[in-house]
Specification:
The chain is of the alpha+beta class. It has a single domain, classed as NADH Oxidase, CATH 3.40.109.10. It has 14 helices and eleven strands. The strands form three sheets. It has a five-stranded mixed beta sheet with strand order 3-4-2-1-11, with helices on both faces. Strands 5-8-10-9 form a four-stranded antiparallel beta sheet, with helices on both faces. The site of flavin mononucleotide (FMN) has 20 residues, from helix 3, strand 9 and helix 12.
């Protein structure tokens, strides 16, 4: 008796997989493996030692009561972060607020030049600054106050002043409403007014470029490119591991317990999708699925998902320096808040950014060669669609008119991310 061919498995939303042309041997070659030393835990003592080394500058800081600082931290705490890894620790001492990169929460080898981390930390600074403005305070942010190397763990020192006149920034009212929404959109045209509101959100950042593509033709072209990069990521051993083992929280209980990662309930997947995803957990199973011809069905779903957008935004920086990345994070958050205000939903796509950065920064040898060749082609297509010259793309998001999310992501408790120094 002839067996029925296995049915294609649909995996939608952010999990864009087409496998057929791709895998020769999905297991990365040995050359691509990188050993990273585990990060030294960032204890309150170590943060105090940093704080003691940073000179009290001429800029006078208004000494805030710690209860006020907590209000500011609670605004920063709900900022978005890559894979919801919340790579921050805050330390308040001597009227100054220190923001640290909590290295034990990030994976250096999966985040070239710490782009994802600095974007997330920039978003946290922007949230904090918006809340401060609302409370009549001005934040003076000094990025990376210590010189190079280990000192990069200290990302910023923030001092405060009382504002002389009242400043208003409407975006503060959207801090809680902002979220990542992975639901499909209805392709409705964005109005001129909303386009200009979103563009205005980044006007203040001299070195950050922003393009908002909203013609159907460009959205479809970008959707195809983004979809392909997302799927390629899954077939690189490290990307696969990060995605399936580090980022995803398979059950509500595990999301609640770790208070980080991506809760699968926020991804709007059907039972069939989830079954497909569970199978993909094993790279060998993914290879089998490709042999069964599941790839084409999955590719179709992926392209449809991204092209359901009403617009696709791209942020750029002149070079991938830590200062620009941090500032781009502030810009990213402002665009996200402005889109939320305009009634649009937002979903970032980081796989193209990370892999394009590897290709552009001569680190393609960290990828299996067949895959890096594909990323090169995809980058050239991308650069041509959004007319990039020498600038580096640093963030891509799609804007949709879509249903609201039903489940919100968790955050670490304030006590886990906020510490008070000896001189507070
Ligand atoms: C730098 C960065 C990269 C991200 N990349 C992706 C991505 O590739 N796909 C996605 O669906 N969400 C992505 N996100 C969204 C995060 O997963 C999300 O912010 C986090 O889970 C917290 O959820 P919230 O935004 O709903 O508060 C990214 C966010 C940031 C800041």
């Amino acid at each position: 008796m002839q067996k029925d061919p296995p049915q294609p498995i649909a995996v939608s939303g952010r999990f864009f997989l087409d496998i057929e042309e791709l895998i020769t041997d999905p297991v990365a070659n040995k050359e691509t493996e990188v050993d990273i030393e585990p990060a030294e835990p960032l204890t309150a003592e170590r943060m105090q030692a940093y704080a003691d080394q940073v000179l009290v500058s001429d800029v006078l800081s208004y000494i805030l009561d710690t209860s006020i600082v907590k209000i500011l931290i609670n605004a920063a705490r709900i900022a978005p972060s890559a894979g919801n890894n919340q790579p921050w620790k805050w330390f308040y001492d001597n009227g100054r607020l220190f923001l640290f990169h909590s290295r034990e929460r990030t994976n250096a080898s999966g985040d070239i030049h710490n782009i994802g981390t600095y974007l997330s930390l920039g978003a946290a600074i922007e949230n904090l600054s918006l809340r401060a403005t609302q409370m009549g305070l001005i934040c003076i942010v000094e990025p990376f106050p210590m010189v190079g190397g280990v000192g990069d763990e200290l990302v910023a020192v923030i001092r405060f002043r009382i504002a002389e006149k009242e400043e208003k920034d409407e975006l503060v009212h959207f801090l809680e409403a902002r979220c990542t929404n992975r639901n499909s959109g209805n392709k409705m045209q964005i109005s001129e007014m909303q386009i200009s509101e979103i563009n205005d959100a980044v006007e203040q950042f001299a070195n950050i470029g922003f393009r908002l593509e909203y013609s159907r033709e460009k959205i479809d072209q970008l959707a195809a490119i983004i979809g392909k990069t997302e799927k390629l990521r899954i077939f690189i051993e490290q990307g696969h591991k990060e995605f399936f083992e580090t980022e995803i929280r398979w059950t509500a209980e595990s999301a609640e317990k770790t208070k980080d990662g991506i809760d699968l309930r926020t991804v709007d997947l059907s039972l069939k999708d989830i079954t497909g995803l569970r199978l993909m957990k094993d790279l060998r199973a993914a290879k089998l699925l490709s042999e069964w011809g599941a790839g084409k069905a999955i590719e179709k779903l992926s392209a449809d998902g991204v092209s359901s957008a009403s617009g696709i935004g791209v942020l750029t920086v002149p070079v991938l320096s830590k200062e620009f990345s941090l500032n781009a994070g502030r810009a990213m958050e402002r665009v996200w808040l402005a889109a939320t205000k305009a009634g649009l939903t937002v979903q970032p796509f980081f796989a193209p950014i990370h892999h394009f950065a590897l290709i552009r920064n001569h680190m393609e040898h960290t990828l299996p060669s067949a895959i890096s060749a594909q990323f090169k082609v995809l980058y050239d297509e991308f650069a041509s669609v959004v007319a990039l010259k020498s600038e580096e793309p640093i963030f891509i998001f799609r804007f949709c008119y879509a249903e609201d999310v039903k489940v919100r992501t968790f955050r670490l408790d304030t006590e886990d991310i906020f510490f008070i120094g000896n001189n507070a």
